[in-house]
TrEMBL record:
GO MF annotation list: hydrolase activity
SUPFAM superfamilies associated with the record: alpha/beta-Hydrolases
Organism phylogeny: Eukaryota, Fungi, Dikarya, Ascomycota, Pezizomycotina
Dienelactone hydrolase domain sequence ranges: 34-248
InterPro entries, A to Z: AB_hydrolase_fold, Dienelactn_hydro
Alphabetical list of Pfam families matching this protein: DLH (PF01738)
Protein name: Dienelactone hydrolase domain-containing protein
């Protein structure tokens, strides 16, 4: 799908009167000027909207989603990307307050929903810091789904100035569906941190999937300056997972949930009940084990 790129500046108030730049990646279909698409807020890593983040947003937009990528540190610097170095990493970690992050997310959702080309359904995604921000964006009940790639600081509660966030404590506020993706060798989010996130989401009743890639490290989807950690094959698989979730929750009109709990089928149900085929089995009475079976047609 073709893409049109632009930017939109919106006023902010949470941390002084300023302006946030939102980079917009908009799908287009020639001959259909009134086509409507879901929206996705794409949160950047700590370095703002870098080349890898822009390419990520373009990939999503090319599948039929209006992507809005905010410049996170608009209160302190221009919208240009920060450098992939220790100095700019430290800047990003020290600058921003939680309330300002949350206002940015809300303004991005507002912007997407205001577009006549948006179908009224919004999701969120992001990597690293952006994975955490996508999670926090999902605290907004308007957000139907969020895909969080190696989200940092959720387990340690250290997002933003003061390093005392309430992201895990508020997990119960998430009404949409989450997809959490980590590398098993991610030294920014250790095994005990991932276990804490998963346990809390279960306890809070969040609808979520949790995926840990066997050999992946932190930043494994970043295709530039990832210090040898970029894995194109796994990146492709994870992107397909994103498309499955967004396609199901943002593109389809499922209507309201009926409120019924999912009934788990008894695994002892015979195959013919499921397949509608005659089933012949030989069972050992002594050991109660299935010895063999064949299907008649």
């Amino acid at each position: 799908m073709l893409i049109q790129e632009s930017f939109h500046d919106v006023p902010t108030k949470a941390d002084g009167n300023g302006t946030m730049r939102i980079y917009v990646f908009h799908p287009t279909i020639p001959g259909y000027p009134k086509a409507r698409f879901p929206g996705v807020v794409v949160f950047s890593e700590i370095y703002q909207v870098t080349g890898p983040v822009s390419r990520f947003a373009r990939q999503i937009a090319g599948q039929g989603y209006i992507c809005a990528a905010p410049s996170s540190y608009h209160e302190f610097t221009g919208p240009e990307p920060l450098q992939y170095n220790a100095e700019d990493t430290d800047k990003g970690n020290q600058w921003k307050k939680i309330a300002a992050y949350d206002e940015d997310a809300s303004l991005c959702v507002d912007y997407l929903l205001s577009l006549p080309t948006c179908n009224g359904r919004v999701g969120a995604t992001g990597m690293c810091l952006g994975g955490h921000l996508a999670y926090r964006c999902a605290l907004d009940s308007r957000v139907k789904a969020a895909v969080c790639y190696f989200a940092t600081d959720i387990h340690s509660k250290t997002l933003g100035a003061g390093k005392h966030d309430d992201s895990l404590a508020r997990a119960g506020d998430i009404k949409g569906e989450l997809l959490m993706i980590f590398g098993k060798n991610d030294n920014h989010v250790p095994p005990e941190g991932r276990d804490l996130i998963r346990k809390t989401l279960h306890e809070k009743g969040v609808l979520f999937s949790f995926y840990e890639v066997a050999w992946a490290q932190h930043a494994f989807i970043r295709d530039e300056l990832s210090k040898g950690r970029y894995d194109p094959a796994i990146t492709k698989v994870c992107f397909e997972m994103l498309l499955e979730l967004f396609g199901r929750t943002l593109k389809l009109d499922l209507g309201e949930h009926d409120g019924k709990k999912l009934e788990i089928e008894d695994k002892r149900v015979l195959d013919e009940d499921v397949l509608g085929l005659p089933l012949f089995t030989a069972v050992s009475r002594n050991e109660g084990r299935l010895l063999g079976r064949s299907f008649g047609v």
